[in-house]
Amino acid sequence: MSEMRRGGNRRKHFGGKAEIFLLILIVGQLFFIFSNSHRNADESTVQSSHFVRFYIERLEGMRYEEAPLSHIDAVTHYVRKTAHFTEYFVLGFLAAAYLWVSGRTRFVPIAAVSFAFAFIIACMDEFSQSFSPGRSNQFSDVLIDTAGGICGGMALLLAAAVIIRLKQYHNRKTRGEHEHI
Q: Each residue of 122-139: pLDDT tens digit?
């Protein structure tokens, strides 16, 4: 049976400390996500404006004060959507890492669980955001959040697959060298 299917071996290898550590990181990421959602519209705008100013001044080489308002609005939109995606990418990566390390599920279900977890949390996040003054919920944000969670989960699975293949290659190479001696 391939290493990707032997969840019990992963659990023995990593131990319970890694699971606890990942759960703490997941809870921390959830706190980060929901605390951002509970900011009112003005606080959220101020938070985004730091990144917008950095992007316009440092990456585009334009003075923020001279940038057209329509350009600032467009950059703000992309900064906010990228923030949504990134928050959930991290969450999806951590959730998939937890499932992988715990050995409770296999390769394919990890992707499905990452999708479901990201979607459910994104729906709860957008719903709770609607109670913050000046904020609204948008289904497009749920889709962006879910895509981030899926990509994060898939990134973990891709990294795990690469590491497993490298270990297998190293083990074959090591066995091959010992057989010739």
A: 999 999 988 888 888 899
Whether residue 2 lies inside any domain: the answer is no
Rounded to whole angstroms, how far apart are CA atoms 150 and 92?
6
Show the domain range for 149: 7-180
Give the chain's count of helices (H) and strands (E).
5, 0
Tell me the per-residue pLDDT of 133-159, one tens digit each, with 9 for 90 and over.
888 889 999 999 999 999 999 999 999
Q: How many domains does the chain have?
A: 1
Note if the pTM is more than 0.85: no
Q: Does residue 53 sit within a domain? A: yes
Rounded to whole angstroms, the Cα distance separating 168 from 86 reads: 32
